[in-house]
Amino acid sequence: MAEVKKGLDGATDSLYANGLHIAGERYVLTKVEDDNKVLYARKGKDGLVIGKTVQAIIVARYVDPMIAGNTAETVQKLVDYLVKVGY
């Protein structure tokens, strides 16, 4: 999780180059949005959407045949809501 936190704090160059590791699996960083508050990573047809709030890091995993966009939308809305209420 240390490399995820670094990515959410803006240090994404090494994540783009080397990927990020969650639960022993390597994911390729594909996109960073919303001023480094949301990271997108893939491993084949599966992937992660990771969001940052004031007090929490949300990690959502999707697997084939789930749709990445649905996961991303859910995480983004949850991040926006939690930030709005100060969490």
What Rg is obtained from the alpha carbons, in whole angstroms? 12 Å
CATH architecture: 2-Layer Sandwich
Order of helices and strands: HHEEEEEH
Helices and strands: which structural class?
alpha+beta
Subcellular location: Cytoplasm, Cytoskeleton
InterPro entries: PFN (IPR048278), PFN_euk (IPR005455), PFN_sf (IPR036140)
Family: Belongs to the profilin family.
Keywords: Actin-binding, Cytoplasm, Cytoskeleton
Explain what this protein looks like in three dimensions.
There is one protein chain. The two termini are 19 Å apart. With 87 residues, the protein is of the alpha+beta class. The chain has three helices and five strands, in the order H-H-E-E-E-E-E-H. It has one domain: Beta-Lactamase, CATH 3.30.450.30. The mean pLDDT is 93. The longest helix is centred in the last third of the chain and has 17 residues, at 68-84. A five-stranded antiparallel β-sheet has the order 1-2-3-4-5, sandwiched between helices. 34% of the residues lie in helices and 36% in strands. This is Profilin.
What's the topology here?
Layout: H1 2-8, H2 13-18, E1 20-22, E2 25-33, E3 38-43, E4 46-52, E5 57-62, H3 68-84
Antiparallel strand pairs: 1-2, 2-3, 3-4, 4-5
Summarize the structure.
The chain is of the alpha+beta class.
Labels describing this entry:
single chain, 87 residues, alpha+beta, Beta-Lactamase, five-stranded antiparallel beta sheet, 3 helices, 5 strands, globular, Profilin, cytoplasm, cytoskeleton, PFN_sf
